[in-house]
């Protein structure tokens, strides 16, 4: 299996497109990370709006450039609204992205995520445990902490990608992405990112923004991983812990340039 | 039409009253901005509490100095609780403020906001698209991003103010406020504020806190705009992007003095 | 009555255990403080997950090291999920902690908190007004702001502790903790902590994490108070207001060592 390394110049092109197009992402995400997710998108030049009533969510997903579905704090009510939004997004041709937080460990979200896959997300972003669980393999995950390495979940990611026509990203110390044919890897980031809530959830939102851009989707989602990793490294150098990391990270996303990515 | 400029000394007087009275604001706001909204109020010396059960919301709005209604993530359940809280606030003489986030673009909130106006808010704070939509004019808004200039929405603001007896604030690069008779303008702020989620929503919360203070309501709501604008300018000078802007902004609100406002 | 002062070396031992065990806390907390609560736990080396569907909450509280129940934005739906989670936690032997935000002032949460006590929390953490209300004494609290001093509520805390077998912490300028027999006091902290939303709620989450650790529960919950107080003092020295306090506080929790606690 050939694993390509994402080229920095490609990530820089995606970032330039992001700032030029300013995609509006309809974020149906968990209750914990909403502010941080919006600020990450805004720092990158994209826009975010959270709309959660069934009818409004269905309306809004046709106006947005992309729809993010994150099941972190799923409820039956939220699930109904997400189904309405996805249905409407699919009809309108709006790409949608699935973040299967803790799928495998908990029942409501696992059943929903499996159903949702049939509605063909543009991309899926999860850790190894989540991707293994989505693909039907067993997993020992406990919530958002993956207990499997990303590489171990790559075959599951490839199977999912082929079955549902999605870009599947398994993120961890090294991120692996596949559209079922090609495989990309993205290195980088910093361990302190695991001590800040929402970095993975925000990456999924950035991936959704990237799916709204014209061009190759696998490269764009890989660019989302690279953008977050580079900004994370910069922020880690300029901060003294997970607290000062957050403002430094948003500043780094804001000022990130092609040189830093290349 | 005469447009007065809000005098810095008046804004300073409002700020002094805020710190002396420490109004408690019952914030029924959207899920994205709750923490930031509370921190803005706390930094200014006010207090905030979010209470959302129907019965408790009705109880609490009689104990609070003001009630904020922000429809950003409206649901049918939240709408019921908001109606209960507004009804109770009106009976108790508690002033309430409406932030009509994305009204015009989405159906549930648009119908609710129109209904709610009949319950006579003390103030309404929105961008141009939202104020135009509330007044029944058409708008091309997409969520929280206004596509119309604030000045263009001033006639709509005046019509709303007269019809419902409210102070109406249309905010944008320049903010315009009216009680139907007088018109105030407030300049300032900084573009980075549009890259941080919740600055507009938090302004509405500060406007609500101001409506709890004794004195002229139009001046007080104008002071809310001026306080946020001055703190935003100070924070922009002391930060390197939207990430470091947030702590700098809260610090600036905390240490803002009459001199800086004048 | 003998009031012991918590020894710094004991707090340091609790902190070392926290980092070694990395307890996973199932946080069912209010909508306002979720991100901050998670970041506080992560900075201390613990983990956090918010799971709120009835069935999933019942599943997850058996996987977690501890369960936090905070009634700040209680609704009937959330109450059902909390009852399911507590029931499941009790069956599994997972310790759970009650934060009775604004109990006494508002009806739904007051009734629920009284019911919940019968399910024997490992610990209860509240301000004086809340602890007095829980114990059936009258109180003039207005939401999260306590109008009574912590010491005045100590007899109520002792009565609660004896009746329900819980550690009860009354926090204020000085914190008092009791298991019904012994009484500990913890001094410190900084007034700016009252100008940042969620410091009390996050303390309850840290107390929950501490209840997952092996050893004396009264000492551990006292250590939670001491850890937050010491980090708060450090952060206050390194910040210029409530905005810069937040990142400095999380950094201080991250880098806190036994020397600083002793």
UniProtKB/TrEMBL annotation, chains A, B, C:
<keyword id="KW-0067">ATP-binding</keyword>
<comment type="similarity">
    <text>Belongs to the Thz kinase family.</text>
</comment>
<dbReference type="GO" id="GO:0000287">
    <property type="term" value="F:magnesium ion binding"/>
</dbReference>
<keyword id="KW-0460">Magnesium</keyword>
<keyword id="KW-0479">Metal-binding</keyword>
<comment type="pathway">
    <text>Cofactor biosynthesis; thiamine diphosphate biosynthesis; 4-methyl-5-(2-phosphoethyl)-thiazole from 5-(2-hydroxyethyl)-4-methylthiazole: step 1/1.</text>
</comment>
<comment type="function">
    <text>Catalyzes the phosphorylation of the hydroxyl group of 4-methyl-5-beta-hydroxyethylthiazole (THZ).</text>
</comment>
<dbReference type="GO" id="GO:0036172">
    <property type="term" value="P:thiamine salvage"/>
</dbReference>
<keyword id="KW-0418">Kinase</keyword>
<dbReference type="GO" id="GO:0009229">
    <property type="term" value="P:thiamine diphosphate biosynthetic process"/>
</dbReference>
<feature type="binding site">
    <location>
        <position position="50"/>
    </location>
    <ligand>
        <name>substrate</name>
    </ligand>
</feature>
<keyword id="KW-0547">Nucleotide-binding</keyword>
<dbReference type="InterPro" id="IPR029056">
    <property type="entry name" value="Ribokinase-like"/>
</dbReference>
<feature type="binding site">
    <location>
        <position position="198"/>
    </location>
    <ligand>
        <name>substrate</name>
    </ligand>
</feature>
<feature type="binding site">
    <location>
        <position position="125"/>
    </location>
    <ligand>
        <name>ATP</name>
    </ligand>
</feature>
<keyword id="KW-0784">Thiamine biosynthesis</keyword>
<dbReference type="GO" id="GO:0005524">
    <property type="term" value="F:ATP binding"/>
</dbReference>
<keyword id="KW-0808">Transferase</keyword>
<dbReference type="InterPro" id="IPR000417">
    <property type="entry name" value="Hyethyz_kinase"/>
</dbReference>
<dbReference type="Pfam" id="PF02110">
    <property type="entry name" value="HK"/>
</dbReference>
<protein>
    <recommendedName>
        <fullName>Hydroxyethylthiazole kinase</fullName>
        <ecNumber>2.7.1.50</ecNumber>
    </recommendedName>
</protein>
<dbReference type="GO" id="GO:0004417">
    <property type="term" value="F:hydroxyethylthiazole kinase activity"/>
</dbReference>
<feature type="binding site">
    <location>
        <position position="171"/>
    </location>
    <ligand>
        <name>ATP</name>
    </ligand>
</feature>
């Amino acid at each position: 299996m050939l694993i390509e390394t994402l080229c920095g110049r490609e990530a820089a092109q995606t970032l330039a497109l992001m700032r030029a197009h300013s995609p509006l992402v309809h974020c149906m995400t968990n209750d914990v990370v909403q502010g941080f997710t919006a600020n990450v998108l805004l720092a990158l030049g994209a826009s975010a709006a959270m709309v959660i009533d069934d009818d409004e969510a269905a309306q809004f997903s046709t106006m947005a450039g992309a729809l993010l579905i994150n099941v972190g704090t799923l409820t039956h009510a939220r699930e109904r609204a997400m189904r309405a939004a996805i249905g409407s997004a699919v009809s309108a041709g709006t790409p949608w992205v699935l973040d299967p937080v803790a799928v495998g460990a908990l029942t409501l979200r696992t059943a929903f995520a499996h159903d949702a896959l049939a509605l063909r997300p543009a991309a899926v972003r999860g850790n190894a445990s989540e991707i293994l669980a989505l693909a039907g393999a067993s997993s020992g995950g406990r919530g958002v902490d993956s207990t499997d390495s990303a590489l171990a979940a790559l075959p599951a990611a490839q199977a999912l990608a082929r079955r549902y026509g999605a870009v599947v990203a398994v993120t961890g110390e090294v991120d692996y992405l596949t559209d079922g044919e090609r495989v990309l890897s993205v290195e980088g980031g910093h361990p302190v990112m695991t001590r800040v809530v929402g970095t993975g959830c925000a990456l999924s939102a950035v991936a959704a923004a990237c799916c709204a851009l014209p061009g190759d989707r696998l490269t764009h989602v890989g660019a989302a991983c690279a953008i977050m990793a580079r900004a994370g490294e910069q922020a880690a150098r300029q901060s003294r812990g997970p607290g000062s990391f957050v403002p430094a990270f948003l500043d780094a996303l804001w000022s990130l340039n092609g040189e830093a990515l290349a």
